[in-house]
Design goal:
5-stranded antiparallel sheet; about 280 residues; Beta-Lactamase; single chain
Length: about 280
């Protein structure tokens, strides 16, 4: 039979049952029972005890009675059932809840992604989080924009560079469009992560200190732009047109890999000249 739509209540019930039944009580250090087990895995009473909730609540969840457990209960069930990260995320999605810490973006680059950024040379590449904080970059990106390593960590932010860095803010030929698109993306991130206080503080800083940001923020444009074209006016080699692509890794969905590619032969030659000098 083909499943045409997802009945989340019934899927939640079935998912909890199958995950309970696949666990070995001995692996969890549970005491042996005199009464023989008629079904594999844990009993509902054991899941309830491990999760710190009532047996009746577990029964009703597994019977698909339409309950909507809180985020704390979902977290407790995920722990009791020893769910790996992908199944934990699935459980949260079924219940319509967000896991604790979901609004806290990564502040350091995942090691495989940092290595990938280096491996993408000679294409300029960098890794960002939802706040536009720059977590990793390669040599080509520092030559194209700025050496991020010379900046304080709090200023390694693509939006701040575009708005306030004395060198970078003059780079973009169509600066109004670039800033507008960045703000529209930032507003979407702000709505998706309402508990990210650092993101809220960053937006408040921009609103206070930058008139262009305040004007464009008030227009409430929303856009998540995963690819496009930017033209940079580099003081060393002149204009460089680059196409950018933003990729979201499945394993680290709160990080964004940004890759620039020359848009034409002239830009490719200019980028080659720019990146030829290494420290």
């Amino acid at each position: 039979m083909t499943t045409r739509t997802v009945d989340t209540t019934q899927e939640l019930a079935a998912f909890l049952r199958t995950r309970r039944e696949r666990l070995d009580p001995h692996d969890l250090g549970l005491p042996s029972r005199r009464q023989a087990r008629r079904t594999p895995g844990l009993r509902r009473e054991e899941v309830a005890e491990l999760a710190g909730i009532s047996v009746d609540y577990v029964v009703r969840l597994e019977q698909g009675r339409g309950l909507r457990p809180s985020a704390d209960v979902v977290e407790a069930l995920a722990g009791a059932l020893r769910l790996p990260p992908v199944e934990r995320a699935y459980l949260f999605n079924l219940t319509g809840q967000r896991p604790r810490g979901a609004d806290e973006p990564a502040t350091t680059a995942a090691a495989p992604l940092a290595e990938l950024v280096d491996d993408l040379s000679p294409l300029p590449a960098m890794l960002m989080n939802q706040r536009f904080d720059i977590l990793a970059w390669n040599h080509e990106m520092t030559r194209l924009l700025v050496d991020f390593g010379t900046l304080p960590p709090a200023r390694r932010n693509a939006m701040w560079l575009c708005l306030a860095h004395p060198q970078v803010r003059e780079y973009y030929v169509d600066r109004e469009r670039v800033v507008r698109e960045g703000i529209a993306h930032l507003r979407a991130a702000w709505a998706a992560h309402p508990e990210d206080s650092a993101l809220t503080d960053l937006i408040a800083e921009f609103l206070t200190r930058d008139e262009d940001f305040a004007r464009l923020w008030a227009e409430r444009d929303i856009e998540v732009n995963g690819r496009g074209l930017k033209v940079l006016r580099h003081p060393g080699v002149g204009e460089i047109a680059v196409r950018f692509e933003v990729l979201v890794p499945l394993q680290d969905p709160d990080q964004r890999l940004v890759v620039f590619r020359p848009a034409d032969d002239g830009s490719r030659a200019a980028l080659d000249r720019l990146c030829a000098v290494r420290p």
